[in-house]
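Appendix B: complex inputs.
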Amino acid sequence: MTRRAGFIAAALGLALGGLALAGAARADSLHLYSYDPADAPTRQAAGPLTFTFRKGLLHTTVLALMSTEAQATAYLRPADDRALGRGGLPGVAGPESSRDRTLYEVRSAEEGAALISAFCPGAGRAWLAFGPLKLNRDLTVLVLGAPAAGGPARLCRTLAFRFHGEWLLPPGRAINPRDLEVHRYPGT
Amino acid sequence: MSIPRPVSTVVACALGLLAGCATTERLAAAGDVHSLLVSIRDNDRAAFDAHVDRAALEGQIQAVMVRKAGDSRLGDAGAGLSLLLSGPLSRAAGDLLIRPDVFRAVADYYGYTPDRPIPGQFALAAALTPLPDGRVCAKGRKRGPCLLTFADEGGTWRLVAFDEGSVMRGGGGAR
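Resulting structure:
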């Protein structure tokens, strides 16, 4: 009886684990959060921005950022902080300011090059280190840049944003984040 | 869960209608283009004059006037008028047209209005497209006309040409 109970408990555990994983997969959803600049340097360089990100149970992946006030989009890809050189993100930005951040490289497609120039003049490559994107919570983003020819990365600036709101996506079928890659509004 | 701004804005952003090549030129120009647009917004004549190539713009205005007179149904009178327009009259027209307030509609289009914060450098740099001859143009749409064209003149990017339709018809061509 005890062995049987143990078997049932193990099976139940596996089933619940499977359900949790399935739920996590289903919970993977696309979000758009808008932020306003919280200080003058951020207003001057970035203006208000909207971040598109995919959120799952255990992860958040930022896909793109858009100027909320103009037609300008830059796409991001997750990056390993070894790309920044020796010491990684803590080595460039300091151990405190780099805590709880995720690093992305700015892709040069679309207005990526314009973004690199505006955020880190003189750099040929740039990375953004995001703090947590959470509803109704302000956000800081570290901008790191390196010369196109190579060389060590440097901290260019820290962008400070106030949470503005979340864009509601159209109801209906799930949004495929790849829709954003083909210049189509998600879900259409 | 609020909707912060009209959805259409984000739709347009997501569509990525504005493209642009990544070049140093357009990005170096952004600071001077920004200064010009601020001078238009603030109706600051001195700052405006520092960022326009008056001779180039007068030349464009003259060419427009001559073309319009020449292709009119005035016949010989039109030809005579063209000659007349190529002189002091076009300079007088330049004095009337090369002023901050004439370019207000284009500045408005790029978000430089007295009632709104000045747009960020990211938005402005994204709107600039390099031309093969080294100049930089500010477009409204990816395949639209250059609304404003700038050239590097001794380290300062100055306005050297503009889209007549957009500027003189009050920005209608900008959209």
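Chain A has one domain: 30-181.
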